[in-house]
């Protein structure tokens, strides 16, 4: 219940302009006007940027060391969840929020299970700020992402690609809760964009 309330608060705050607008990098939104179903994939580069760290490996090394000092095993558990939560928490939250939005005459849906879908939507995660807590001040989680849509059988045929855009969430909960919330916000917000603009 608390998680749902936090998410509703985050949704309300997000409408105040925490997201920047989509800007086209390649292709055209007109190419998407007849598409209402996408297979979705999430892409994380090996060199994903983490706030205040030179690399993801450096971030995880610091987090493991910090936690192991407090409780044996907690650092390795954090490292394990850092990767597992992508498929187990973040991505399902994005998909649920994306599919939950619809207009009276337009409903675009995404799923990892649309194996026969003619088109694929790739959500590319470039940057993560997990929203660490600093003494009495909590930082918001942030992402920088871009979207790429192409024919499933021909990934080189890009119908639409956005420029990287930032989105931030709320400063409530632990790192994983904050990241989950910002994925949900991204899902809801991007669904509104694709429903209204295509």
Structure overview:
There is one protein chain. The chain is α/β, with parallel strands linked by helices. The protein has a single domain (2-197), classed as Rossmann fold (3-Layer(aba) Sandwich), CATH 3.40.50. It is built from four helices and ten strands, in the order αβββααβββββββα. It has helices at residues 2-14, 56-70, 74-100, 175-197, and strands spanning 24-27, 37-43, 49-50, 109-111, 119-129, 133-134, 137-138, 142-151, 154-162, 165-168. The strands form two sheets. Strands 1, 2, 3, 4, 5, 8, 9 and 10 form an eight-stranded mixed beta sheet that branches. Strands 6-7 form a two-stranded antiparallel ribbon. α2 (56-70) crosses α3 (74-100) and α3 packs parallel to α4 (175-197). The longest helix is centred in the middle third of the chain and has 27 residues, at 74-100. The model is unreliable at 10-19 (pLDDT under 50).
């Amino acid at each position: 219940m608390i998680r749902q309330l936090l998410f509703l608060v985050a949704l309300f705050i997000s409408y105040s302009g925490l997201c920047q607008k989509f800007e086209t990098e390649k292709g055209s939104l007109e190419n998407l006007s007849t598409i209402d179903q996408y297979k979705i994939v999430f892409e994380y580069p090996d060199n994903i940027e983490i706030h205040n760290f030179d690399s993801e490996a450096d971030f995880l090394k610091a987090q493991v060391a910090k936690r192991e000092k407090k409780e044996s095993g907690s650092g390795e558990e954090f490292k394990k969840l850092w990767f597992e939560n992508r498929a187990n928490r973040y991505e399902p939250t994005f998909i649920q929020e994306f599919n939950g939005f619809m207009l009276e005459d337009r409903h675009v849906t995404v799923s990892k299970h649309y194996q026969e879908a003619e088109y694929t939507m790739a959500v590319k995660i470039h940057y993560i700020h997990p929203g660490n807590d600093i003494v009495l001040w909590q930082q918001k989680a942030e992402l920088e992402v871009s979207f790429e849509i192409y024919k499933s059988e021909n990934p080189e045929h890009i119908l639409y690609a956005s420029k990287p855009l930032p989105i931030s969430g709320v400063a409530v909960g632990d790192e994983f809760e904050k990241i989950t919330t910002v994925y949900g916000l991204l899902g809801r917000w991007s669904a509104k964009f694709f429903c209204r603009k295509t």
